[in-house]
Amino acid sequence: MKCPFCGYMETKVLDSRPTEDNTSIRRRRECLSCQKRFTTYENVEDIPVYVIKKDGTREPFNKRKILNGILKSCEKRAISLVEIEALVDNIEKHIYNTMEQEIESSLIGELVMQRLKELDDVAYVRFASVYRQFKDINTFMNELTKLLKEK
Where's the ATP-cone domain (predicted)? Predict the structure, then answer.
């Protein structure tokens, strides 16, 4: 394992334990050169899933993109990183459980919005405004009205 700090190729494992959901192994490591510690996760390699984007191009599924989008929409909200990571893990699990090798980006966006709506209304509206590309204030108000009716 390559040290992320100094690039040295040898480390020792200090601690190994399964994650809470038992889907991966968390390893605490120490670099044999600089003695800095870092954490790695060992996961079972899944069948690659490709995302079909709006323009028809395909790219490998990347849960970091979902995480980054949700982090932006949850900025300055009382939502913990643990809750956000659980939400992203839930979406990822849903995608892999479909057993499809290709999934449309629109389906991923809808999954994110559905989960965010359950978590936080403001984060939901922020994400929806970017995802649905609200063109004007009327489109934005329509979405808010729908949200208020559901509550």
Answer: 49-139
Query: Do 89 and 118 lie in a common domain?
Result: yes
Which amino acid does the sequence have at 7?
A: G
Asked whether residue 76 falls in the same domain as residue 106, the answer is yes
Query: Crossing angle for the helix pair 63-73 and 105-119, nearest 10 degrees?
Result: 40
Length of the chain in residues, anyone?
Answer: 151
Q: Is the pLDDT of residue 47 over 90?
A: no
Give me the pLDDT at residue 144, please.
75
Residues 3, 38 contacting (CB under 8 angstroms) = yes
Looking at the domain assignment, is residue 5 inside a domain? no
Number of domains in the chain: 2
Residue 23's pLDDT band (cuts 50, 70, 90)? confident
pTM over 0.70: no
H or E stretch at 38 = strand 37-43
Distance of CA 38 to the CA centre of its chain: 21
CA distances from 83 to 9, 71, 117 (A): 34, 11, 13
